[in-house]
Amino acid sequence: MCRVVDLKQAVLAKNDSAAHALRAELTARGTTVVNLLSSPGSGKTALLERELGLARERGVPVAALTADLATENDALRLARSGVPVKQVLTDGLCHLEAAMLGRHLDGWLSEDTRLLFVENVGNLVCPASYDLGESLRVVLASVTEGEDKPLKYPTAFGLAQLVVVTKTDIAQAVEFDEAAFRAHVQQVNPGVEVVLTSARGGEGAGILLDRALAVGAGGAVHAPVMAQQPPAHHHHHAEGPVHDHAAGHHHDHDHGPGHHHAPGAGHAPAAGHGPGPGHGPEGGPGHTGPGSVSRAVHPHSGVVPTR
Fold first, then answer.
1. Exposure check for the chain: N or C terminus, fewer CB within 10 A?
2. Residue pLDDT, tens place only, 76-129
3. For residues 102 and 107, what is the distance between their CA atoms, to the nearest angstrom?
4. Nearest alpha-carbon partner for 139 in 91, 185, 207
């Protein structure tokens, strides 16, 4: 098991290096990356479509990249906003990685793009472990998912720099307890901002866009406590006792052993568990695979394959 843990940590370390380089490159040219994470069905595509439309109305150069295991449905929806959109099919991988993102941006993302919204694969486990080189990490949860969601997925919510509640227009119908949800968020991520939105009802319209623009302008970014914890090197062996290679630094995660990275300036990188069985295609942990496909979606002109 020690080799497995070491491999997971090596994969995350390699990803962190790629994320650091990508963040530096995009920041230097004035592009702010927003990483959106949520469970499937949270309403993040509907919210993002609305925010992209508002950005276009305001004249903000913006683009969106959306990742799914299959179908181009989300990209086609987002393209209705009239901004550049690319669909990435992950070929079974349940999350994006920094090198994978960078490869799909190369030759596609316009140099004058001010904001890039990345709609990660719908999943609150795997994507939480991977820093994409974002400047703002946003975790969304709908009112239908239950107030205890932050406690069930502490890594995802614990590393968020902004938490967005969606579908508030039906909050009363589903008896959503806002106070309890906020308390649970603060339990895993003290001080993080929680905002309420409804793509259908209009509550919080433009708030995600405003927060992203503020970050791009050099505004303060929340630094999660979890991101500031030192890495754990707690290795389990098939036989014999547990060995702590950094005594006093064992942390519990959503699934299996993992580690946390110290935050960089103005950014709280992702951390948590490494890729485990079933988290990637046949290439093994962290494998982005030659089979991943991206498609640039052009409004009113269909989907054009890109390689």
1. C
2. 999 999 999 999 998 888 999 999 999 999 999 999 999 999 999 999 999 999
3. 10
4. 185
